[in-house]
User: Fold Transcriptional regulator from Bradyrhizobium japonicum.
Amino acid sequence: MNKAQGAMSYDELRGAIAQRHRALSGRLQQIAEFVLDHPTDVALGTVAEVAQRSGVPPSAIVRFAHALGFGGFTEMQQVFRSRLVAGVAPSYKARLARMKSEEKSVLGRQPAAVLSRFVSEAQSALVTLSQSVHARELDAATAILAKARDIYLLGLGGSFPVATHLAYVLRKLGRRVVLLDGTGGSIHEQSHAATTEDALVAISFRNYYPDTARLFPELVARGVPTISITDSLLSPIVEGASVVFEIQDMPEPALRTLVAPMCLVQAMAIGLDLAAD
Amino acid sequence: MNKAQGAMSYDELRGAIAQRHRALSGRLQQIAEFVLDHPTDVALGTVAEVAQRSGVPPSAIVRFAHALGFGGFTEMQQVFRSRLVAGVAPSYKARLARMKSEEKSVLGRQPAAVLSRFVSEAQSALVTLSQSVHARELDAATAILAKARDIYLLGLGGSFPVATHLAYVLRKLGRRVVLLDGTGGSIHEQSHAATTEDALVAISFRNYYPDTARLFPELVARGVPTISITDSLLSPIVEGASVVFEIQDMPEPALRTLVAPMCLVQAMAIGLDLAAD
DNA sequence: TCAGAAATGGAATGAATATTCTAATCGCAG
DNA sequence: CTGCGATTAGAATATTCATTCCATTTCTGA
Assistant:
């Protein structure tokens, strides 16, 4: 009733409820048991819904929140909601908050701190990658590459390193690769020979490089099987693609690490090689 | 507008949004992009909040929901909430178990298994990186780059993606960069203008690219301050370097992920930018 | 350039919601 | 059995919210 409950984590709240459980009145104990058993209902439901499911009148729910030191049900609900967002987005929220705060502090500006920040960012990007990429897509992608005579790679601007890396690995594995980099003329000319017998791997993140957005539909229209690696289903290289890998939470261009797409393309290339035997 | 949207999963909704995106009007497209980027905000926020964060009037949000075939915002929100609920149920343990089982199942030859192997390799590479790089070296490196007029980047063969990535980030930050890639002539000519006022970042791993081994000593001899990123103190770009970053345990060329050097160069670039203010 | 159509923004509206208030009930000591 | 304080339930209330409506602006095609 007296504690400051301003910023409380879900686990702390669980502890507080368990601790005070004995001291609560009958109805309030009943509610305590319900909310610990059904935290998701509390997070997303209204007072009336929670009241009905736990078999108490709505006002009792509000009294329960008051007894725990919250200003009302809405305030308590925030804690239950934080549990949901923590479960679904281990990277996103924490990353934004951390970057914001560290960016301004003196500590965050020292190169060593910057490095450790990028390392942990890369870690979470890898976790997200392994969760969001499904076996079906990878199988489809390697199948396309296996049948391709020549493999065309389209990745410009910030995505160029990914394309060059994939080119390097594929060539090491003996595949015929055409890297569309615009050197010595237009990309159009470089890609002119691509047919339905070949394959295209396109990589593009915001802001989508104009040439990529322009060339991609042309190759799709010519019937070239296409694997897209991008950060949004709305990107210009999604429509018409045979396989799409979506890599979420790419930070702004200067801050993105490319760790996730680099890993992905390498897994594609090596997986292709292993499956071929 | 016509589909029955009764029971729709979050992934299905994503697909539907992406599919109709082009057919939507300007404002609605803007909202489509926002909701795909901030699904959590949509799940937990009110119409007014979502409207404000996405920079549109509340009525537009409702029209967006209608355009997708929902009866209103509340109906659409249910789908976004289902994502939160799904994310919290199979918690940490289940995810780990899934990775473990996938790793062993039916050989490690399936593409999905290959990906998870690269991911965990990359994870450990990042840990090693943050342990082996010391603040003193990073400070020295950023100091060199801060004083440099032009920054020359030398990374060929398998290291080329690292060089292009560093070039991209440095240019985004407004630095003058010369990427030594041998396009349109010899690398020697490209590097001819480098002086003691400039700086060189050299990246090379086994087997050391011949051109790199040849060019590096020349620039050192001309007194160009040099930062080397390599995998052994015996590599040809160590002797004479002002700062050396040694990244150990690099696998054979085709299998290496470049995750560690990518992170390192980015931390260098951003650290340089933050320290400059 | 103009007319018609589509889209947009903002205010108005009515529903839904959390909260408060009060009368009734319960528990309990004397 | 009685009276008092704590507790409760449900109605009343004030607030917040989603939705609708309409005047205005912005596209589109001739």
Summary: Residues 133-276 of chain B form a domain with the Rossmann fold fold (CATH 3.40.50.10490).
